[in-house]
Amino acid sequence: MMNTDKIKSASPHLLPALPYADNALDPVISANTIGFHYGKHHKGYVDNLNKLVAGTEFADLSLEKIITATVGKADKTAIFNNAAQTWNHTFYWRSLKPKGGGEPPAGLKQKIEASFGTLDACKKELATAAMAQFGSGWVWLVLNGAKLKVVKTGNADVPMTAGLKPLLAIDVWEHAYYLDYQNRRADYVNAVLDKLINWEFALQNAS
Ligand SMILES: [Fe+2]
């Protein structure tokens, strides 16, 4: 699996610290949302994963290896879901930053323009994919060979198992935005793209 060296993990799996204060993304994402999303949902996935793998063949595997070993296996769905959601959330928090958005660094902007034409077209494709994801899931900017691409995944699914290298993730589960935006997913996604998205993190992941 690609891009596995940047999120370290060992068993028991730990909830990584948020890369900023819980009110640092306010008002786009409130401290109240972070309190539930990070403190309850993300923590819950980590706690469930540790319970599910204890005493099993997965107990000593890294998070990435658990995801690879359980994807698509009907009898391992709970382990996959909790491992993938643990990974996805850690990646999501790092895909955001206070005072994000704006212009990507030159190295990334060049890649975006080569793949989408313009930065606006790239952002529009991310927002459209977010709206097209029916129910819970994720929207990703990924590297597919040399090209950037937007993909969406349902529920806990990750792009890595399809050979795509994730650069950025936006959580479109309702728990990511409901307290701040109620049902207005588009407003949440557009605000994230304009004000929080961490283009530097995408560039790091692309290189
Ligand atoms: Fe989430």
Summarize the structure.
With 207 residues, this protein is mostly helical. The chain is 47% helix and 11% strand. It has a 3-stranded antiparallel beta sheet.
Radius of gyration: 16 Å
What is the terminal-to-terminal distance? 16 Å
- Mean pLDDT figure: 94
Q: Give me the side-by-side strand order of the main sheet.
A: 2-1-3
Fraction of residues in β-strands: 5-15%
Structural class: mainly alpha
- Uncertain segments: 1-6
Task: Specify the number of helices.
Answer: 8
Biggest pleated sheet: 3 strands, antiparallel
Total strands = 3
- What's the helix-strand series? HHHHHEEEHHH
**Globular, elongated, flat, extended or rod-shaped: what is the shape?**
globular
Bound ligands, named by name, code or SMILES: fe (ii) ion
Helix content: 40-55%
Could you characterize the architecture of this molecule?
The radius of gyration is 16 Å and the shape is globular. It has about 210 residues and is mainly α. The protein is about 45% helix and about 10% strand. A 3-stranded antiparallel sheet has the order 2-1-3. It has helices at about 30-55, 65-70, 75-95, 105-115, 120-130, 180, 185-195, 200-205; strands spanning about 135-145, 145-155, 165-170. It is built from 8 helices and 3 strands; from the N terminus they run αααααβββααα. A hairpin with a 2-residue loop joins strand 1 and strand 2 (about 145-155). Mean pLDDT is about 95; it is low at about 1-5. The relative contact order is 0.16. Fe (ii) ion binds near residues 41, 175 and 176. Fe (ii) ion (FE2) binds near residues 41, 89, 173 and 176.
